[in-house]
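lol so apparently i was supposed to do this last week
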Amino acid sequence: MKSLALVAFLFFGMTVFCFTSTFVSWEMPELEEYKGLLERLVGKPVTGTYRLIIASSTGEFMELSGLGYWFIAAAEDSTIFVQPLSLVPNVTQTVAHEMCHLFLRQYRLPYWLEEGIVCCVTGEWIGRKELILDRVESLDYSGMDFMTYRSYSFSCWVEVSKILRERTFGELVVALGEGVDEQVE
Ligand SMILES: [Zn+2]
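anyway here it is w/ zinc ion bound
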């Protein structure tokens, strides 16, 4: 009975978690352009290595990330979760997007600002158009559906692009960051 339970457990474990785990670092040549843009924006060297978990199914991605099926990727602590690669249109850009989020977390910016800055670095909204949502800074993105979240991300990018023409990243960190890292200027 005991061995049967063990076999059942192993089988369960294997069928539920079939993800691939690897590491990604800002030193990777494919990320050089994104790294350069982010460094110019924050005014300091960008480094970091993160665990990358590639889910084997959308169900697994949802279970691992705690997000809806329509998200492509997510980042938490120093781990990035992505959907099965066949569902990710631009893997490098998607991973760079999540790595930017993880790097920027040290500044504890409001999410709309962080999302907008990330999209300025990846350039993913250039040449694309979505509905603009008013006052992105007051919106809660957590319960949004797919189309609303797209509009939200696009609106964050539009808003932050405007702000960055008038204010530096350092000024935004001082004005809007919560608990500024001492090394940040
Ligand atoms: Zn994002």
